[in-house]
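input
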Amino acid sequence: MTRLLAIAAVVCALCRAEAVRPPAVAGEFYPADVKVLASTVDGFLAKAKSEPAAGVVAVVAPHAGYPYSGAVAGEAYASLRGRKFSRVIVIAPTHVEAFDFTSIYSGDAYETPLGKVLVDRAFASKLSKMHPSLRLSTKGHLKTKARGEHSLEVQLPFLQRLLGDFKLVPVVIGDQSYEKCRALGVALAKLIRDQETLIVASSDLSHYHSYADAVALDRRVLGAVEDWDYLSLSRNLESNIWEACGGGPIVAAMIAAERLGAAAPRVLKYANSGDVTGEKSRVVGYSAMAFNKGTSAARPSDSYSAEDRHELLRVARQSVQIAVEENKLAPAPPLSSGVLTRGRGAFVTLKENGKLRGCVGNTSASKPLLLVVRDVAAFAAVGDPRFKPVTRDELPKLRYEVSVLSPLRRIADPEKVQPGLHGLLIRKGEMEGLLLPQIAVEENFDRKTFLDQVCRKAGLPPQSWRDPDADLFVFTADVISDSQP
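output
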């Protein structure tokens, strides 16, 4: 009886109709004719200037129509020339269908005019079991009444022409929150055990701004990638302060790539639709990026001159004075160029007679530094919930301290935390806490105490920093005080 059941199961599997996701945007986003499509993709790859590099774990490529973004996509894929990949995981955002999980295609193949690409069903099945937010599904994959999703499909002709035969794991993210992206990134890192698996994140950047505004917005996103600060990237995208319609796929790819040994991000090319059409009033941004194994490519620390430090303290004082006396935010300080206009997190600490009077900060590099200092200084004076608002009589008594933060970097080994040098941020689920580097010095914390205290700050039990579901980030702070000469 058992043998008959086994034979019946095999027959059933053989009889099951193959589930193939047909091309949905051929003839719209890219050519539908086989010869024209092959020639178009080959042309983009031939013109690309990106040099192939060993140790590429993941790439980011745009997903607009080929006439607009194909040249940028070609740069991402050209960095893979000469490499062999037997499996490609394409992570894309949803534009067409709303759902609150990460959808791993449950079918057998994706198809383009160049032919079928078989799904790695075994890997897809394993991935779907790694976290409740990862599910086998057709959501985000199949054509709806409106149209078909393009963001994953447009990557396939490049992969087909470049790699030839490979298996595909098609992933569409419905909820681009940090926790959902982290779940995907961590799961991929646990499952990938070979050198022949590539991760592709499908993403455009800002949409429909003027050329100059788009470049400024997009450079902030690219800067966070180059700083490997995916937590700030995710926060600012979730808050709609920055823009990237595939920001979640980028974050998930960075989290996976980091755990697979990548530490060297490369922005291979940036452009926008205005560079192609000449129409610069409403443009869409595109970038090609690669994440490589190798030595960390952390950028040099910012250096603040005496004039820079004076200006930061001036802006903080003025902001507090106007907030207290006029109950409004100070005008934006002039922004030109230089270190004070870079996106950086900052805290402003107010003290009166040596005692804390207010401390508020922004850890994410959401705005130019001068604007961050203006904003958090005002809130430190009138919005810190631990204290009553500062009064006019107190203004002459206040001492100011501006702490400019470096980008956040996840640290895998807590033993490498250096109290006095590093500040700490811990995040587990929605719980988060931060301690500035000077806290360890002022309180004479050793490493373990410092780690336990940041957990308490987050509302977590001590030693939560040991929890595999918690992420520990370090940063440094350039502390600028009005008590300094």
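quick obs: The chain is about 35% helix and 25% strand.
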